[in-house]
Amino acid sequence: MNLITALRLSAVWRRLVDAPLDSSVCRALSDGAGRRRRTS
Fold first, then answer.
1. pTM of the entire structure?
2. DSSP character for 40?
């Protein structure tokens, strides 16, 4: 396996792993903001 293929694979893998993480982080942040607004 050459370097370009490895880099391409790692980029795809990172995108697959980051997508659910990003959405869950965004959801957690929006939930926290919503809770703060409701309590204040």
1. 0.41
2. -
